[in-house]
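does this look right to u?? magnesium ion version
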Amino acid sequence: MRPEAAVARPDIAEGEPLVSIRDLRTYYSIRGSFADRLVGREGGVVKAVDGVSLDVRKGEVLGLVGESGSGKTTLGRTILGLVRATSGVVEFEGHDVAHVPEREFRALRRRMQVVFQDPHASLNPAMTIAQAVGHPLQIHGLERNRERLRIKVAEALERVGLAPAAQYMDKYPSDLSGGQKQRAVIARAIILNPVLLVADEPVSMLDMSVRAKILELMAELKRDFDLTYLYVTHDLATAKFFCDRIAIMYLGRIVEIGDAASIYADPKHPYTKALLRAIPEPDPARAVPRDLPRGEVPDAASPPLGCSFHPRCPLAFQPCGWESRDLRDLLEARWARKAGEAGVEEEEALFGNLDALSAPLISARLTPPRGRTAAEMLAVLERIRTEDPDEPFWKGVRRLEAVDGRLELDFHEPHDPTLGQSGDVEVACHLYNAPA
Ligand SMILES: Nc1ncnc2c1ncn2[C@@H]1O[C@H](COP(=O)(O)OP(=O)(O)OP(=O)(O)O)[C@@H](O)[C@H]1O
Ligand code: SF4
Ligand SMILES: [Mg+2]
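got this back:
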């Protein structure tokens, strides 16, 4: 089956950029919480995609991998034109998708399709499978004859393994299993004969037993239909087998990108290394403790300075972006860890409220409570340093003194790492590309 649709651009050769993204930013405005608004505080922006440049090459499977909240879905949706970019350029087949006239955009849009994570939510419960799969041909005005439409739908269903099609055409989504529903969604995507398929976690909501089969189907379709995939996932284990290249995303940025084989054999970025170590071992006898990066993904509305991975990075050093919030987190984590131990309450009382450390500043100034001294605060910090001298935080501290009754702490100047070539991959990390 080869459904008719817009003619593919023959001039884009295999391996050439099908999608070209340059310095793309997609920010969401967020309203402050109700409490914030009561006190007149404004909402901010979430920098979901924050300066991404990459190509999706014709014929490849590009895996976009990262933890929850890293901006994978937003990047996919921006490429598809479902979310408006704040700045930067997305070109698809050489057309700037934000600036093509509406009519042309519809034609382009036919050629890029999407499969989302939740097949159930992707299908209208009131439409039969035949109606759902045939719908794109109807709304794009590509098939008005009912008989021919049904034949095309049946071909598409059989192509995705829903065979014989007659058994599925008049069923409703609720009659199908999760895997069958996702097959129907894939049939609906390929019926328009796209060149690009954005697959956003297409198997993560399916039973383990059907995941491999759906990925096999996608691999077959890619071959038969000359498709290019942007495959969004947080699962590096499956990405290894499915992807030609991998882009690792963290808080809106690509931190490492390269051939899948190179990334798995020799990961460079500390985040990539941690993600790879965290892949569960299939053989429980050889299972090692999961070693996820420490801490949680920070709030994208107020990302860390410098390298946004620095608060979790075991190798972070001087230029990585140390700031007052890191001191707050260090103290709070210590007190939580040692809760109930002798002397901890006293430390907490000495430092008092840490709100002064909540803004991202490269210096911290703390005033002791009445009757206490900055020298005592300094002594506590020196003790913490002695107890764990390898804690990366201390590499970020440029000056720590008690001056004029205040504790003064200055950090090294923060630098944003940018992607640069290192061996076979590109990586954004000061360990490989020294800051200018
Ligand atoms: N419509 C929206 N309005 C405001 N913020 C949003 C919106 N959609 C996403 N975000 C925020 O943007 C950031 C990136 O979200 P996104 O869904 O793109 O990440 P993701 O990598 O796809 O995550 P997941 O793995 O959980 O699907 C997150 O901080 C998220 O909370
Ligand atoms: S730049 Fe590299 S070393 Fe520094 S925090 Fe980021 S990942 Fe770690
Ligand atoms: Mg997502």
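Confidence is low (pLDDT under 50) at residues 1-7. idk if thats expected tbh
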